[in-house]
Write a structure and sequence with these properties.
By secondary structure, the protein is α/β, with parallel strands linked by helices. It has helices at about 15-25, 35-50, 65-75, 90-100, 115-125, 145-160, 180, 210-215, 225-235, 245-260, 260-280, 305-320, 345-360, 370-380; strands spanning about 5, 55-60, 80-85, 105-110, 130-135, 135-140, 145, 165, 185-190, 200-205, 295-300, 320, 325, 335. The relative contact order is 0.17.
Length: about 375
């Protein structure tokens, strides 16, 4: 039976048709005035999405590449880093401090538990740190933290010497993220999440404080040395060959975000996420996170349902592709994306497909119960 392909993984996410068509156009040379003009527009659009007046550097690579560029450009061997470790990606950032010779202190929390401003404040009062690093929206657990409150604490308690390094890979462009207003010093995201592009570009922005720190960075780097990017972007260029076709396509998707406005994007993402969550609850399923992110939802499997069987059913019978759990939650949860090129009817399709998959796996399901609950939430967007 013909079934449309539906990508509901939290990265890569679906890409708008107009953006895909841009990628199908002939390849242009990147050392031209036309490229620099387009790149300047992308810079302005990225500043809008990051909610910053600072430069947003474009790295050809993944979000991890952008994190490495940001981290190594502001840290030095021997400096102390407080890293919040509450998910697979948060754990990855702990390894960065170790790899580059920084002194690491981990604030460990259970998967699905968000770090709070109070927990950060307690650590900063106990000891001095050169940086606090954390994940705003932990993709592996679909958990979001109070970044605005944490930014305030880091500034007030940590003082001028403590930078706030934030992985915003599944929050920037999907949920409220205000770099300048919240006091974020290093902000990172990737193209394949809320920015509606295939994988291949990473973005990193530095505050004025972080830019000053970068001038004295001691970690040896070459490709990810943001001082090189800082010098090139002054001329509207990049220090190395960029993925210029991706950048051209990124401009298309970013224009869509600007046209819709961030506020509407945030509302749409939240409503779609809440509709899906209510649909799952109506089916008797439990949301994993204690503080769910709107960009992606993690749902616990009911007893008797195997991850492989469930996701294989969605893929083979419905052509719907979702993600499983990671790290300690592998095989225990499934994850569904709501960010980027996602609309209310994607939520309904996801809920309906879950109903059918559970029924196929001999679970007690009242067809339509989850869909009805989701519809009631989605009505807010059409009132």
């Amino acid at each position: 039976m013909l079934m449309k392909y539906r990508l509901y993984t939290p990265g890569p996410t679906s890409v708008p048709e107009a953006t895909l068509l841009e990628l199908a156009k002939p390849v242009h040379h990147h050392r031209t005035g036309e490229f620099r003009t387009m790149f300047a527009e992308v810079q302005q659009l990225l500043q809008y999405v990051f909610q910053t007046k600072q430069t947003v550097y474009t790295i050809t690579g993944s979000g991890t590449a952008a994190f490495e560029a940001g981290f190594t450009s502001v840290m030095a061997p021997g400096q102390r880093v407080l890293n919040v470790s509450n998910g697979k990606f948060a754990e990855r950032w702990s390894s960065y401090a170790k790899t580059f010779g920084c002194e690491l202190v981990e604030l460990k929390l259970d998967y699905g538990q968000p770090v709070t401003p109070a927990l950060i404040e307690a650590e900063l009062k106990k000891s001095k740190f050169d940086a606090v690093s954390l994940v705003h929206s932990e993709t592996s657990t679909a958990t979001v933290c109070d970044l605005a409150g944490i930014g305030k604490v880091v500034r007030e308690v940590g003082g001028e010497g403590t930078l706030l390094i934030v992985d915003g890979i599944t929050s920037i462009g999907a949920m409220p993220f205000k770099m300048d207003e919240w006091g974020v010093d290093v902000a990172i995201t990737g193209s394949q999440k809320a920015l509606m592009l295939p994988p291949g570009l990473g973005f990193v922005a530095l505050s004025e404080r972080a830019t000053k720190r970068m001038a004295d960075a001691k970690i040896k780097n070459f490709y990810f040395d943001l001082k090189k990017y800082q010098k090139s972007i002054a001329d509207g260029d990049t220090p190395f060959t960029p993925a210029n076709t991706l950048i051209e396509a990124q401009a298309v998707s970013l224009r869509m975000v600007k046209s819709e406005t961030l506020e509407v994007v945030w509302k749409r993402t939240h409503t779609v996420a809440e509709a899906f969550r209510q649909g799952m609850k109506a089916l008797g399923l439990e949301i994993f996170s204690s503080n769910p992110a709107d960009s992606v939802t993690a749902v616990k499997y009911p007893a008797g349902v195997a991850d492989k069987d469930f996701r294989n059913n969605l893929k083979s019978k419905h052509n719907i592709h979702i993600a499983g759990g990671q790290g300690t939650m592998e095989g225990k949860i499934f994850r569904v994306n709501h960010m980027g090129y996602t609309d209310p009817y994607d939520a309904l399709a996801a809920v309906a497909a879950v109903e059918h998959a559970l029924r196929a796996l001999k679970q007690p399901v009242e067809l339509g119960k989850g869909v009805c609950a989701a519809q009631k939430v989605l009505g807010e967007l059409f009132a």
